[in-house]
Each structure stands twice: as structure tokens, then as C-alpha cells.
Design a protein that fits this description.
By secondary structure, this protein is of the alpha/beta class. It has 3 domains: about 400 residues, Na+/H+ antiporter like fold; about 130 residues, NAD(P)-binding Rossmann-like Domain (Rossmann fold, 3-Layer(aba) Sandwich), CATH 3.40.50; about 70 residues, Alpha-Beta Plaits (2-Layer Sandwich), CATH 3.30.70.1450. It is built from 24 helices and 10 strands. It has a 6-stranded parallel sheet, sandwiched between helices. Strands 7-10-8-9 form a 4-stranded antiparallel sheet, covered by helices on one side. α3 runs parallel beside α11. The two termini are about 45 Å apart.
Length: about 625
Amino acid sequence: MEHGSASVTSLVIVILAAFITPILLHRFKLRTVPIVVAEIIVGLIIGKSGFDLIESGMWLETLSTLGFIFLMFLSGLEIDFSAFAGGQKKEKTAKGNFAPNPLKIASSMFVVILLLSLGMSYLFVVFDFIDNVFLMTLIISTISLGVVVPTLKDAGMMKTHIGQIVLLVTVIADLTTMILLAVFVSIYGGEESGSMWLLLILFGAGVLIYFVGKRFREQSFVQTMSKGTVQIDTRAIFTIIMVLVGISETVGAENILGAFLAGVIVALLSPNQEMVKRLDSFGYGFLIPIFFVMVGVGIDIPTLFQDSKILLLMPLLFLALVIAKMVPSLMLRRWYSWKEVFASGSILTAKLSLVIAAATIGEEMGLITTRMEGALILVSVISCLIAPVIFKKLYNQDEEETEYNYTVSFIGSNRMTLPVVRELDPKLYETHLYHTKVEKVDERISNSCFEINDVESYDVDDLHGQGIFDVDVLVVSTGDEQQNAVIAKYAKDRGVERVIARAETSELNNELKAYGVEVFSVFLSSKALLKAMIVAPNSVDLLTKQESQLYQINMNNPRYDGMYLRNFPFTGDVIMVRIFRDKDSIVPHGDTELKMDDRLIVTGSSEYVEELRMDLEFCEMC
């Protein structure tokens, strides 16, 4: 009983440590430190390297293993296979040449990474640091998807060309090294690991599960049973994880391969984002922190310092990580600046979960010592500490050198202002979007790609208190043209150099022009455009780059039912022109709510319209 009591006490300490860690990061504003790295550091403090408070037992071992399995599942789930799709439009970089094809350049970079890793691994074997070239190649070549993705998101680089290249390199590295790790276990694992051909059973089961899931996710009963206490979609996902983990263990592969394959299958089935959020919440809120804290608990740093070979290995291994990622990144110099190249190379050096997996497996198979395992994990932790910091420093320096030519405030978020905000060059215009608060608060506002500042009202005193009039250009486009006129006149009185206001009536139009306000209206703009198309069609081509075709999309996805348009997560160059609801025709604006069975008339690039159609017309697993 005493041993069981100590085990439960250790579990409580680990859970408390996992709970306190993010609070400490927030309190001391350590935003550049990934939370998983902080959890390992806390584990070092309370484990063998520090106060040695933790006694391993059944509870901790079981939960830690489940955390590792769930981490591998979420790593597979994070892979966005749409990134592998071709047909992307060519864009010019800041150097004036066309950006490279992300998939081609990413594949080329990973091939170079793999070759360099193989060469340096051979040197580690020659100098007797490790006995297995294959294992060291996997450790050097892998990249941490869990560190790269949030870092790119925080930097706002996910949708940029260079961001897509970095993401694709990471995804390719994650997929390839995971498969190679399974092959490694099959070759070096001995009799218990089974034959390599048995892996085909695992992948065959994965393919079968994918087609079964694809068939049943569209059934109406699935949507019905996904609510209340049934939650059939969540049950299905955990069943997929455990079935594939079980098969993976049976055929002699590591359980993490089955978990990773389960994540890939679920990602291919395009799960509902709310369900993904629930899975993230469960994984990163409970199981995964326990695993990472226990990783730190198991590392005994004092014993590492007792081995001179280990002490020499760690800096050499870190240097190998840098070389293996920085040299291939030089391929980007043709299109991007040195800062972008070095920033990309630095974030690619981050590695964590797969290194832990490879090191753990290597130690279990007797290919490396416990000290070597700890050294490999410690180097990966250091890489995750250093890489995001260097990346953010280079990126921030780039931002600091950017000098905006104009500061523009938009009052009113609607179909007129949102597309303009999106398309203004961020290097030339600093934009701010303001809208009145709405009573209905939707948690999905966090998914919006626009940063909208809430104001209590459009009263000029309230607006003045927010500093909205301290700009170079003010655009006023609320739904009330009289209100637009009041705000515009006040802005001119306050000395705003350029004020642009929306006014539809000719009387108000003339009044504002006399006041020095620039005026636009939907009616006048349409008339001017038609005249320009007749008189000077080439000038219209110069001004319009988007496709002008209209498309109809039926709103069938309950996830967006009741969502305000200003909170809708717009994707790409798509503008909503009209909404038909029953017999009503609605001109959409920021406070228009989407309803089930709405017929949306949209315009924009065909590829983005198709993406929006897939999102709205086909209900995903809810």
C-alpha cells in the first residue's frame, strides 16, 4: 500500500506541475518557450536531475504511454494534405522573381537534409559515438511539427509562400521519418518485432478504416448520434486509435506508428473543427503534459556529465542539427532575403517528439545506453528552446524595419471593407478595423482572419476616445449613410487629411463633397464601372484582378448556423454579394447572420469559391 500511495502522490505532483507550468510562462511572459519544452524543464526540476520527488508507478507509466500515443495521433492529425495540392498561382517575391513551387522546393530540401544527415551519422559511427547509422540519421533529419506549426502561426507566415515551404518540409520530414522509424524497428528489433512485410497489414487496415469512415461520415444518423451523451464521432476516433495501436503492436511495430497513422486517417476524413478542438483540449490539457513532464523526470543530467563521450556528443550533435537544416535552406536564397533564409533554417532545427520516440525505441532495443537516450532528448529540448527564439528575433527585426506609408482606419466591417482590408499591402498600409459590439458572442470569432476592434457605438465621442481619428486615411462605411456623414464631417474637423465615406443619395453625396470628404457608393461605383467598360475597357482590366463570375453556394453546414458574417472565417478571395433566404433577398453586411438553407451568391477566385463550397455545402462530422 505504501508503494501505491507513493505512486499516487507522484501522479498528483506531476499533474500539479503540468497545471502550473503554463501559468508560470504567462506570468513571466516567456512566450518564445514552447509549452512542451517548459513541461520537460519542470520535469527535470522535480525529477532525477532536481529534487527527485517522483516515484514511477503503474499510474504514471500508463498515463505517460497514453500521452505519447495521443501526441503521435495529434501529430498525424495536424498534417494538412491540401498543402500537397498543385495548381497554385505564381506570385512574385520581394526580390522581384516568381516564387518557387512549394512542394518541389520542399521535397528537394528534404532530400538534401536526408543526405546530409546520413553523411554526418556515418561520421558519428566512425568516431565511435554511436553504433547505428540508421538511428542517428532519423534523429538528425526529423523536424518537430508540434513546434514549427504554432511558431509559423504566431508569426503570421502560414499562408505565405516561404511559410508553406517550411511547413511542407516539416510535414514531409514527419511522414518520412515516422515510416522509416517503423522500418528501423522491423529490421533491428529482432524476433519480437516481426517481419517488415507485416507492416502492410497495418497500412492495409488503415486504408480500410479510411474508406469505411468516408462512407459512414456522410450518413445522417452519424450527425444525430454525435450530440448529447452519445458523441459517436469522438468514440469512433478513439476506436480508430486503439485498433491501429493494437494492430501495430501485434505485427511487431511500435504503437506510436499506429497512433500516427490514426491521426493521418482522421485528417484525411476532414473532421469537424470543433471536434478537433475537443481532441486538442483533451490531449494537450491532460495526457500529453503528463508525458512531457515524465520525459524530464527520467533525464538524469548529473550522470550525463560523468561521461566525457556524452559531453562531447551533445554539442557535436547540435552542430549537426544546424548544418543539416541550414545548408538546405540556402536553396531559398534565390527567391528570399538572407533573414528569411536563416529564419527558415533556424525553425527547421527544432525537433522533439520523434527524437524522443527514436531514442526511447533505441534504448529499449539495446542499441543505445540510457545516458545516450537522455543526451539525445536533452539536445532536442535545447533545439526547441533556441530555434523559436532565433526565428522570432529574425522575424521581428524584419517587422521593425517595415515602415508604413499610411495608417488607415475602417469604421464598419462588411462586404465592402473586409475585402479591401485583406488586399491592402501590409508593407505599405497599417490597417485598423472597427465595428460595434454585438450582443451574441460566438466563440468562433477566434477563427476570423480579421482583427476587428469592438467599439461601444458609432458615436463620435466614443470613436474619438479610441484614437480612431489619429490616422492618415479614414474610411467610413457603416450601414447608415447619415451616420457616415456625421462621422466623416467630425473627422475632417479633427484634421484627418483624407476621409472616405459611403453615401448613396445624391444630396448627401454633394454635401459631403463640399465638406472635403471623398464619397463612394455602390450605385455610383456600378455606373462608373459600366461606363468604363464601354469607354475604356483596358482600364478596367488594370483595376480588377479578381474573377467576376458569380457562384451560388447552399449553406448546409450547421456549424455556421447563426454566425455573424463579420465573424465568418473568410478563406481566400471570396466576397458574398447576396443572400437569398426563402423569398427574401438580403444584401449582406457585417451583422447579417447566416442561416441553414441560405443560398449565397459569391464572387472570387474559382479555387477559393470551391473551397468555400466544400465547407458550407458538405456537413463534416459534427
